[in-house]
Specification:
4-stranded mixed beta sheet, alpha+beta, 336 residues
């Protein structure tokens, strides 16, 4: 069943007008999985920082109610927000709500936007603990985490959107009642927005493989010292194809690494395509290297290389390997 959704429907899922327009252009979608894949690609690769901030600002703070005068998409979004926060509100006390309000204000003063978290199924205490845990983060790190949490919310709401359409449709066999129940119970797991095929199949049916809309390995570089994306950094992606199963620590190799692709980060700090868009990436050891010395000649690192392994069970997942860089330090993590 193809989706017949409009821009306003996608705006209820994510409060960025740019995101909603891109989703409307990409529609119709033959399935929820296809819509989620497109949404993830648009959110992480096509919209800009201002779109992220607009989406953040569309949320009420945890524990707050939405304004009474609202448009259609705002009403839908507010209803969904209320449902997503139901566990938190049900477990709240006067003192916990007061403490949450104080920490929300402190967080907003530091980062410039409200605390974003996929609150579905979480108690007030859990949300407050996560807020306190994330508060010490550097702004550029927290901005990325907030974007990942927003994508979790968006996917959850896309599921609700498709479920509501299925309820209206007379062809209800495509969306059984068990699926509608599962939508309300599941926490969406993206963290980084992974398009994994974690479907729990009905017995006797073959699982459906999602088609990628971006390469399986991507990266972007954030200049922590400037608080902005790092443009113009050369990036190389390699795969280990030596005689040994994997490279050994402390051993210098003159061969074994095969270059798969190279690129230069754009104004948003993102690299171009380093690898072909394939449904399944080859399992193995990969190395992604950044020419940081050319970008920051006075810095401590002439270049930075990150080595990671993709296992057989992960070959359909997406691997986002960001670099958080300053002249005298760097960090990374597996994102989405």
């Amino acid at each position: 069943m193809e989706s017949g959704f409009e821009e306003k429907d996608f705006l209820a899922c994510c409060g960025s007008t740019k995101f909603a327009k891109e989703m409307a252009l990409a529609a119709p979608f033959a399935s929820l999985e296809q819509a989620v894949a497109a949404a993830t690609d648009i959110w992480f690769n096509k919209v800009d920082v201002s779109a992220w901030l607009q989406a953040f600002s569309a949320h009420p703070q945890i524990g707050d109610s939405a304004p009474s005068s609202q448009s259609h998409h705002q009403t839908t979004s507010a209803q969904w927000s209320k449902g997503e926060q139901s566990t938190a509100l049900a477990t709240a006390t006067g003192s916990s709500l007061q403490e949450l309000s104080e920490w929300n204000a402190r967080y907003r003063q530091k980062f410039g936007f409200i605390f974003i978290i996929c609150a579905s199924g979480r108690s007030t205490d859990e949300i407050l603990a996560e807020l306190k845990n994330r508060y010490p983060n550097r702004p550029i790190v927290e901005f990325e985490i907030a974007a990942q949490e927003q994508m979790k919310v968006t996917e959850l709401r896309l599921k609700k959107l498709f479920t509501s359409k299925a309820k209206v449709s007379s062809t209800s066999d495509q969306y059984p009642a068990v699926f509608a129940k599962k939508v309300e119970e599941d926490r969406v797991n993206i963290i980084g927005g992974h398009l994994t095929a974690n479907s729990e199949n009905t017995s006797g049916k073959t699982s459906e493989v999602r088609t990628r809309t971006r390469p399986p390995i991507t990266t972007h570089v954030l200049d922590v010292s400037r608080g902005s994306p790092a443009a113009g950094i050369e990036v190389f992606l390699e795969k280990w194809e030596g005689t040994q199963p994997h490279p050994s620590f402390g051993v210098t190799y003159t061969s074994g690494w095969k270059i798969l692709g190279s690129s230069t980060t754009d104004n948003d700090g993102r690299s171009g395509q380093l690898l072909s868009i394939v449904d399944a990436v080859d399992p193995g050891i990969y190395r992604i290297s950044f020419n940081t010395g050319k970008y920051c000649p006075s810095g401590f690192f002439p270049y930075v290389s990150i080595v990671f392994e993709i296992r057989e069970s992960q070959k359909r997942e997406h691997f986002h390997v960001p670099l958080l860089l300053s002249p005298f330090s760097f960090s990374t993590y597996r994102g989405s």
